[in-house]
Amino acid sequence: MALKVPKEKGEAVRKILLEKGYLDISLKVGRSDKHLLFPVLSEDAENIGCELVEDDFEERALAETDYRSLAHVPGELKELLPTSFDVIGDVGIVKLPEALLPYAKQVGEALRQVTPRLRTVALDKGVKGELRVRDLEVIAGDRSTETTHLEYGNRFLVDPAKVYFNPRLANERRRIASLVKQGEVVVDMFAGVGPFSIMIARYALPSLVVAVDLNPDAVEYLKRNIELNKANRVVPYEGDARQVVFDVPCADRIIMNLPHSALDFFHDALTRLKVQGTIHFYHICERDQAGQVVKDLIADAKGMGVMLKAKRIEELKTYSPSMSVFSVDFVLVDWC
Ligand SMILES: C[S@@+](CC[C@H](N)C(=O)[O-])C[C@H]1O[C@@H](n2cnc3c(N)ncnc32)[C@H](O)[C@@H]1O
């Protein structure tokens, strides 16, 4: 939520917002040609006499010194305090080293103090199982972890304790949407609550986006998000993508965002891709193995009679000291 203020009134309005406690100091102020966009914590800010609008904001770096001094943890553990955390809607998600676990509540409270828009802070105990759901424990604030996350103007209703959602993939989703051509059939094999599918439906002109997920909670949120964003070209399917890909039309583009096990589905996906179609493939592996994995997939495809080309390979994010998540765009050149 932002207050849209003409630039010449910016300084005066900023002072009032600060005095009244409306300004969200954890986010950077946005700018357009003639306006400043102040991130605000309450709709009451509108009473100042400016327009309230929806917008995305960049996080400010955590005010590390304030946060360290605020957290009631033994002095010798202060240097272990995390310097970053994820935010989904108004839920903060933080990982802690073993030694800080007894002080999780104190860390959560300190984070809420320096980041006022956090309604809840939850401890991240890792992503688990086939459905990739995060094991979360609320350590400060409200008990509910259901929230609405804003991403490039899309609204995603999500409960990160029940379904997978990664706010760090926003730019990757926007990149994929920018590649989609008019009339394409897109299959999002591991759609979750729909962030790739809905971004594509909102920013491109596909004829159909098939969004599949095995987690019934994810499909429930996906349906609500389709409505919330009026993304009518997205058709939700609950089920195993391995089967669903054979029940839906062949695709111009297939998204495979299941980095731990997408390899197991690659063969099936390839048989459902049109000539000149693209697979967006996400894979976690040792950093020095990524090139070999891509070569092996191209060789396997050749064995199937498919000429495949890796058009783009990007190291998307670090997963562990030696492993990363890679994003690969494969194009099916032709059948050989
Ligand atoms: C890493 S998450 C990605 C979710 C979504 N694309 C996103 O960016 O937020 C992978 C998703 O695949 C789903 N999943 C796991 N195995 C599946 C299968 N065999 N068929 C369909 N979906 C599956 C999980 O439930 C989870 O929502």
Which properties best describe this structure?
336 residues; alpha/beta; Alpha-Beta Plaits; GMP Synthetase, Chain A, domain 3; Rossmann fold; 7-stranded mixed β-sheet; 4-stranded antiparallel β-sheet; 9 helices; globular; binds S-adenosylmethionine
Mean pLDDT over the full residue set: 93
Could you spell the SSE succession in H and E letters? Answer: EHEEEHEEHEEEEHEHEHEHEHEHEE
Q: Give the strand order of the largest sheet, numbering strands 1, 2, ... along the chain.
A: 13-12-11-14-15-17-16
Low-confidence stretches: none
Strand content: 25-35%
CATH topology of the largest domain: the name is Rossmann fold
Question: Helix coverage percent of residues?
Answer: 25-40%
Number of helices, where a helix is a run of at least 4 consecutive DSSP H or I residues: 9
The total strand number stands at: 17
Bound molecules: S-adenosylmethionine
The CATH superfamily title of the largest domain = Vaccinia Virus protein VP39
